[in-house]
Amino acid sequence: MELGLVTLLRAAWVAVILPIVIASMPSSKLSWFHQLLSVYAKRGKTMQPSSYKFTVPQRFFSHFYIMAVAWTTLLLLTTWLYACKEAPMTSESFHFSHLASYLTGGSHVFSFHKSHLTPVEYRYGVWRSVLLLLLMEAQVLRRLFETFYVFNYSPSARMHIFGYLTGFFFYIAAPLSLCCTYAPEVFKFTLNLVSEFIVRGKNQMPAIEIDWLEAINPLLKLGWRQWIGCAIFLWGWIHQCRCHAILASLRAHSEQVDDYVIPTGDWFELVSSPHYLAEIVLYSGLVIASGGGDLTVWLLFLFVVANLGFAAAETHRWYLRKFENYPTNRFAIIPFVY
Question: Is 54 left (phi over 0), alpha (psi -120 to 50) or beta?
Answer without folding.
Answer: left
